[in-house]
């Protein structure tokens, strides 16, 4: 089952928005695995019914339906369902689930604080420094948005997958009896075409997978695209056929790590994170 997770950059209800993140969540019930695949927003792709553009324009032009259709026609991935969330709602969901713990690098602190203030103004709760720490909703959202430091948008999409993986792990460690309570708290913050009863079934299915690792990938895959310019825009021009084949192998292999897709470690800045605030914990 494929569910498209769409993070939009709207600050207020009804505001015209672009996709700040496009992540495909795949639930493999046969192998009891969850896979997260980021689609980088600067990919230059044909959009059905429109001229080629960056893939994040598909949502602006035709909402989640056009974005799902674009993914199907370009990468042959069939997506029936979507979950859409804006900045403020994402912050509330993080807070509802009790925050997340990550290692914040020294070069990330100023960028995180900049984005916190941009969205929250006088109500901002800023970071005091780097290190392994718990992030609230404001801080986690801003952590997911950084793209001007480190390895740019490649590292940004990795942060997004990592945060989603942490949220999935938190949800899977909640008592089964508390799941309806959490769902009731989260549902008002999202827009989705998944019927409520089916959404609950999906939640229980993922819960029963246990604590199997969440596997992650990024499209375009390494060595399958060119960084270039079109009409003055900086874009990623992917080899569509190669990426479609590699995506299929990643999604349908029994283990994403054992698939034929190139190893993602080239851009994996955070896989071996260790705390640097001397708490004595060995976290990754």
Describe this protein's structure.
It is a single chain. 37% of the residues lie in helices and 22% in strands. Mean pLDDT is 82; it is low at 256-271 and 273-284. The strands form four sheets. A six-stranded mixed β-sheet has the order 9-6-1-2-3-10, with helices on both faces. The chain contains eight helices and twelve strands. Strand 11 (225-230) and strand 12 form a beta hairpin. It has helices at residues 57-75, 87-96, 109-120, 137-145, 152-172, 179-186, 196-208, 240-252, and strands at residues 2-8, 19-28, 33-39, 44-45, 53-54, 81-85, 100-104, 131-135, 191-192, 214-219, 225-230, 233-238. The longest helix is centred in the middle third of the chain and has 21 residues, at 152-172. It is an alpha+beta fold and 284 residues long.
What are the key terms here?
single chain; 284 residues; alpha+beta; 8 helices; globular; disordered C terminus
Secondary structure blueprint with pairings:
Elements: E1 2-8, E2 19-28, E3 33-39, E4 44-45, E5 53-54, H1 57-75, E6 81-85, H2 87-96, E7 100-104, H3 109-120, E8 131-135, H4 137-145, H5 152-172, H6 179-186, E9 191-192, H7 196-208, E10 214-219, E11 225-230, E12 233-238, H8 240-252
Parallel strand pairs: 1-6, 3-10
Antiparallel strand pairs: 1-2, 2-3, 4-5, 6-9, 7-8, 11-12
Helix pairs in contact: 2-4, 3-4, 4-5
């Amino acid at each position: 089952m494929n569910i498209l997770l769409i993070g939009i950059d709207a600050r207020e209800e009804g505001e015209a928005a672009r996709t700040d993140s496009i992540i495909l969540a795949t639930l493999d019930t046969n192998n009891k695995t969850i896979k997260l695949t980021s689609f980088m927003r600067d990919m230059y792709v044909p959009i059905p019914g429109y001229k080629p553009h960056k893939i994040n324009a598909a949502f602006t032009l035709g909402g989640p339906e056009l974005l799902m259709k674009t993914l199907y026609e370009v990468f042959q991935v069939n997506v029936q369902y979507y979950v859409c969330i804006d900045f403020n709602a994402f912050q509330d969901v993080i807070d509802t689930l009790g925050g997340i713990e990550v290692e914040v690098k020294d070069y990330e602190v100023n960028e995180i604080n900049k984005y916190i203030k941009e969205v929250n103004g006088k109500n901002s709760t800023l970071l005091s420094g780097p290190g392994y720490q718990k992030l609230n909703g404001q801080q986690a959202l801003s952590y997911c948005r950084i793209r001007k430091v480190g390895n740019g948008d490649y590292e940004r999409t990795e942060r997004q997958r990592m945060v989603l993986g942490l949220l999935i792990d938190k949800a899977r460690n909640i008592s089964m009896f508390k799941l309806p309570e959490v769902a009731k708290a989260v549902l008002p913050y999202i827009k989705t075409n998944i019927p409520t009863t089916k959404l609950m079934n999906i939640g229980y299915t993922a819960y029963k997978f246990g604590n199997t690792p969440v596997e992650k990938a990024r499209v375009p895959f390494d060595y399958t695209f060119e960084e270039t310019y079109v009409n003055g825009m900086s874009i990623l021009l992917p080899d569509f056929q190669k990426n479609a084949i590699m995506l299929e192998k990643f999604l349908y292999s029994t283990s994403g790590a054992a698939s034929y897709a190139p190893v993602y470690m080239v851009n994996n800045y955070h896989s071996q994170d260790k705390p640097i605030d001397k708490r004595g914990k060995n976290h990754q």
